[in-house]
From TrEMBL:
<dbReference type="GO" id="GO:0046872">
    <property type="term" value="F:metal ion binding"/>
</dbReference>
<dbReference type="Pfam" id="PF01477">
    <property type="entry name" value="PLAT"/>
</dbReference>
<dbReference type="InterPro" id="IPR000907">
    <property type="entry name" value="LipOase"/>
</dbReference>
<feature type="domain" description="PLAT">
    <location>
        <begin position="79"/>
        <end position="202"/>
    </location>
</feature>
<dbReference type="InterPro" id="IPR042057">
    <property type="entry name" value="Lipoxy_PLAT/LH2"/>
</dbReference>
<dbReference type="InterPro" id="IPR001024">
    <property type="entry name" value="PLAT/LH2_dom"/>
</dbReference>
<dbReference type="GO" id="GO:0034440">
    <property type="term" value="P:lipid oxidation"/>
</dbReference>
<protein>
    <recommendedName>
        <fullName>PLAT domain-containing protein</fullName>
    </recommendedName>
</protein>
<dbReference type="InterPro" id="IPR036392">
    <property type="entry name" value="PLAT/LH2_dom_sf"/>
</dbReference>
<dbReference type="GO" id="GO:0016702">
    <property type="term" value="F:oxidoreductase activity, acting on single donors with incorporation of molecular oxygen, incorporation of two atoms of oxygen"/>
</dbReference>
Length: 223
């Protein structure tokens, strides 16, 4: 037993040992090495956070284009006065007195608490197609919306021409949900006779009627 106790004491003394003096220069070098090792890790972490934030921002700001196909039905017979006014409308359409559409989303903007709206877009090639004798004439308009716009629930129509026209339907193409149809089958009067915008609701919302701008605002606020 005495021998084993002595051997144990010798082993413990070997592990304890005497304190070793380390020069200050060596301590400073060790600290510099630790800093050099930690710095790249922190830089890489910051780069990853920045890259993720840029990716998230890019996903929120995606814009894409959609197209409206507008079907207008021509009159079977026109008198001389109507023909002259029609030619005047074809001319003034080139200088901004045209037919303007605006998309209204079924989703409400969380900031304004009102339905989201696109920028106005004018019908194209009205002047070029004014002399067509076909029963139905198709026009187009192009909108740019973002990925958070939602599905359009209504369209406003503003007729800046002097003469009314018969709007049969509007179809919006380009949304992920597929084509959105807006049946109308009604005359769109000139803005000088009907200053307010005409509203056409999508058949997906179950509205097949026209309303004025105030009625549209109340309807979408209730959504």
């Amino acid at each position: 037993m005495l021998m084993s106790q002595r051997i144990g004491m010798v082993r413990r003394n070997q592990f304890l040992g005497s304190p070793v003096w380390v020069p200050p220069q060596q301590i400073r070098r060790q600290e510099q090495l630790k800093r050099a090792v930690r710095a790249p890790v922190a830089a890489i972490s910051e780069d990853i956070i920045k890259a993720n934030s840029k990716t998230a921002a890019a996903e929120k700001a995606v814009n894409f284009k959609v197209r409206a196909v507008v079907t207008v039905r021509n009159k079977h017979k026109e008198d001389l006065k109507e023909t002259i006014v029609k030619q005047m409308d074809a001319f003034t359409d080139k200088i901004g007195r045209n037919v303007v559409l605006e998309l209204i989303s079924g989703d409400v903007d969380p900031k304004s608490k009102e339905p989201k709206r696109s920028k106005p877009a004018a019908l194209r090639d009205w002047s070029k197609k004014s002399n067509l004798k076909a029963e139905r004439v198709h026009y187009t308009a192009e909108f740019t919306v973002d990925s958070n716009f939602g599905v359009p629930g209504a369209i406003t129509v503003s007729n800046k021409h002097q003469q009314e026209f018969f709007l049969e339907s509007i179809t919006i193409e380009g949304f992920a949900c597929g084509p959105v149809h807006f049946p109308c089958n009604s005359w769109i009067q000139s803005k000088k006779d009907h200053p307010g915008k005409r509203i056409i609701f999508s058949n997906k919302l179950g509205f097949d009627f026209l309303a004025n701008d105030e009625a549209l605002e109340e309807q979408f606020r209730a959504c």
